[in-house]
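Quick entry, no commentary yet.
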Amino acid sequence: MTTEEALSWQAAMEEAEANRNRLWSYCEELARGNERARLTGPGDPETLWKEHVLDCAAALPLLPRGGRIVDVGTGGGLPGVVWAICRPGLSVTLLDSVSRKCIALGSIIGELGIGNATVACMRSEELARSNRERFDVAAARAVTAAGPLVELLSPLVSVGGMLLAFKGPRVHEELDEVGPKWSRLGLGEPFLHPYPLDGKSRVIVRWVKAKSCPGTFPRNPAMLERKPWWR
């Protein structure tokens, strides 16, 4: 990592540590929620902290202090709940289409008193119709490949805002598949922010929204994989 990237990682971990008590309470609630609704993989708070909360916290240096954020495919609230706890000036929409997850997540944020986060139980295509280009940041973690993902995220973000995607070792393969065609969705070229997590190499991909996304996007969900927008 460069010095700048290392400092960003250090700042992210310091911010997580400063909010450790509330974040740990979230881990405990999420572990209990897993028993009811399978919100995420691991079920114990310690693993949730190491593998999920700290992972989500890595993006904190990239986020504004205020503004509207949407977490697409949030599941148990990752990364949106982590960001809402650490950044009370943000208004975070936790988006998921699975009702049992939405109900469980709503219970968690209610129990923890997270007043700057709300749950939206619908598909991203529906939210794009009612809140088109109204968010400052749209993010996703463990949802789908970069190409299909930006078709879901770009229509939600205002011009000048940004898209964030958490990625692993296949990130270059996913980005190379699209090539230089990001501008078709109103996006600039992707910028990669690598960071370490428990000995593994991870990357946050960031796109800046340069212009409005064409109104034809997002398309019907069946079209995302069948007819990629970049071909």
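second:
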Amino acid sequence: MPEHPIFSPKDRLMQTDEVISIASAFVKMGVRKIRLTGGEPLIRTDAPEILEGLGMLQAHGLQELTLTSNGIFIHNYVDNLRMSGVRTLNISLDTLLPERFVSLTKRDHFHRVMSNIHLLLQEGFRIKVNVVVMKGVNDDELIHFIAWTRDYPIHVRFIEFMPFQGNSWQDKRLIRTAELLERARAFYEFNPLENKPNDTSRAFQVLGFSGTFAFISTMSSPFCGDCNRLRLTADGKIKNCLFSKGEIDLLAAFRKGQFIEEAVHQALVTKEQQWGGQELFEAIENRSMVAIGG
């Protein structure tokens, strides 16, 4: 997280009614799952209205509404999440050490995030914890995160460090999934779990543990061939891959009263075979992750 993130002007972002109307169009086209992500979606003052509006789409074909969050504001929105039909949340948490949390996020909110994770568990939500693993930064916590799944029904997902503008990506900080699996096997006996179609991760469970863990190996073993995802940024641009440098301005088309289905189709047919058509181990053209949102 940068010290001083630069946010887009509000008039360039999708407004409440635009989010719901555009999402409705996607559902009519066959989309069955929507995830609000970020950045931090709950930083928006209209988050309750967006959740309510998207939740109503579950009566019109939407099968799953979910959310990715840094966990800081969750305690203010538990009722909104439940009433909108959210059952699963992804919480971004790269460390279990309070002082390291401050170093990585530039915010002193570790204990609040942990409290909110336990609050969600108590309220019956399914929790996935996203951990971006970086060599020399937090890779020493692999075993501690897996140990966390002993007594809690959480699903920890270890994500390979990916290059984005402004995140100081270096190949030497990338730890491949194969190495992480080898480290884990030195401590635990675990079995692979069956993955669903289009899953981005490979899941495992230690014998006798309540929770599970998984690896998202974007860099070392890309899953692009099974990817069925599109991302709509907060300012209304379609990215047909998280790494694509090209974007289609869906919001501009919507505000002009054009049929956005044509733009969505264009995004689908121009989806590259892998990594958005870029070579991730070289210099890439893309937004910073905090500016992508969606």
